Structure formats: C-alpha cells, structure tokens
Amino acid sequence: MAPGGTITGSTLPYLPGAPSSFTAPARSDSPEPDVIREWRERRDLQVQHRDEISSERKAKTIKEAQENIDDFYDNYNNKKDKEIAKTKREAEEFLANRDDTTAGGTSWERIAKLVDLSGKGVKGGASGSEKQRFRELLLSLRKDDKAPGATGY
C-alpha cells in the first residue's frame, strides 16, 4: 500500500505533495471587471479602517494596563513603607517599655508589664484554663504590696 492511502472511489494511490488535478483556474491577463475592482477597493478600505480601530484599541488597552501596573506598584510601595515605619515605631516603643520595666513599682508590677494579660493572642486561654488562672494570680500579686517577692531582692 502506498504511503497516504488511496483516494476513495479510485484505485490510484494518494501521494501527499503530488500535483492535484483539482487546481484553481489560472488567472488570465484580462483586466478585472469594474464591479470586482470597486468591491476590492471598498473591502481594502474597510479592512484598513478596522485595522486602524483595532490598533487604537490595542494602544488604549496597553496604556491602561501600564497605568494600572504603575498604580499597583505605587500602592504596594506606599503600604510597604508604612508597614516598615509602623514596625520600626513599634520596635522602638517595645524597647522603651522593656527598659522601663526595670524601674518603679513592685516586682510583680514589673513582671505584669512584661506579660500579656489580655487573654488574647495565639492561645489566649479560655475561662477555666491554666492561663486564665495564671493571669488572675499575676493580677492579684501585682495589687498586693505585701505579696512574696514584691519588694524585690
């Protein structure tokens, strides 16, 4: 069997790339009729007009996309700068508060400044939990001037 198979209804093999007996009629050198020439000119103008509109839309879309990208990066950089400034300010406040815990008040008051007594956070400690009892103990020791260790060393 020949490569490519056979033509249906024929015993002749089909060979890809071989010249076909079904080719477009050759153009003669006779001039085109006026109707066809006018139609081609109108079609070419319409195609040209659509291409112009398409290129304008494409340019507009690219411009809008570039503006959106620029806005995104402006917003991103502004947020990043604000977060950096906030983190730096919080770090400075933390260091100032940490250094402040070594002076003033009883030992339990200074300890309570270092510990989060809000009950919030990763595992805040619900009522009845060990963390809640620890918070209550620290709060009671902080208020009691005669609690063990309140006066320091």
Automatic annotation (TrEMBL):
Lineage of producing organism: Eukaryota, Fungi, Dikarya, Ascomycota, Pezizomycotina
Keyword hit for Coiled coil: yes
Membrane protein topology class: Peripheral membrane protein
Protein name: Clathrin light chain
An example Gene Ontology molecular-function term: structural molecule activity
Tree of life domain: Eukaryota
Coiled-coil residue spans: 62-97
Record region (Disordered): 1-34
Function: Clathrin is the major protein of the polyhedral coat of coated pits and vesicles.
UniProt source species: Pleomassaria siparia CBS 279.74
